[in-house]
Design brief:
With 155 residues, the protein is an alpha+beta fold. The protein is 19% helix and 38% strand. It contains one helix and ten strands, in the order αββββββββββ. Strands 1, 2, 3, 5 and 8 form a five-stranded mixed beta sheet that branches. It has a five-stranded mixed beta sheet with strand order 4-10-9-6-7, with no helix packed on it. A hairpin with a 2-residue loop joins strand 2 and strand 3. The N and C termini lie far apart (65 Å). The structure holds dinuclear copper ion.
Length: 155
């Protein structure tokens, strides 16, 4: 292949890749609804404990086998530190922090986000199998970081 032809091939390949990446970006934004956190999900960091739903952390049923689990992260614990749901339950985790940045990962699931002061994080997951999942803080948050955990029990 002549160098000129090769250059043309690589140029078209680059253009094609750019197109694929742009399509993926548009699909994630408009097809899958992925977006950056917006102002609806903000909370005044110093008033977290007075702001619903964080004034009453815990689990509540919001529909047939649908739950909302409101969690607070703080140095160095989660509140509540245990929730129990029936197998097949769809749980939406709604969480924030009362102090510094923490992590929130439910082991064995794709639930994995950060707890950022002033920001509400949410993610849903359906627990199909009975069992126990540890919730761990995966962002170093001080001396007690390794003690910061909670549990999801699926019955
Ligand atoms: Cu909280 Cu590490």
């Amino acid at each position: 292949m002549s160098p000129k032809k090769m250059e043309a091939v690589f140029l078209s390949l680059s253009a094609a890749m750019l197109l694929v990446f742009l399509l993926a970006l548009f699909y994630s934004a408009y097809g899958m609804g992925m977006h950056l956190p917006d102002r609806d999900d903000e909370v005044i960091p110093t008033q977290v404990r007075e702001t619903p739903p964080f004034d009453e952390p815990g689990l509540r049923e919001v529909g047939p086998n649908e739950y909302e689990a409101v969690f607070l992260g703080m140095a160095w614990a989660f509140q509540p530190n245990e929730i129990t749901v029936p197998a097949g339950a769809e749980v939406t985790f709604v969480a924030t922090t009362t102090d510094v940045i923490h992590g929130f990962h439910v082991e064995g699931t794709r639930v994995n986000f950060m707890l950022i002061p002033g920001q509400v994080s949410r993610q849903s997951y359906t627990f199909n199998e009975p069992g126990e999942h540890l919730i761990i803080c995966h962002e170093y948050c001080g001396a007690g970081h390794h003690l910061m955990y909670a549990r999801v029990i699926v019955e």
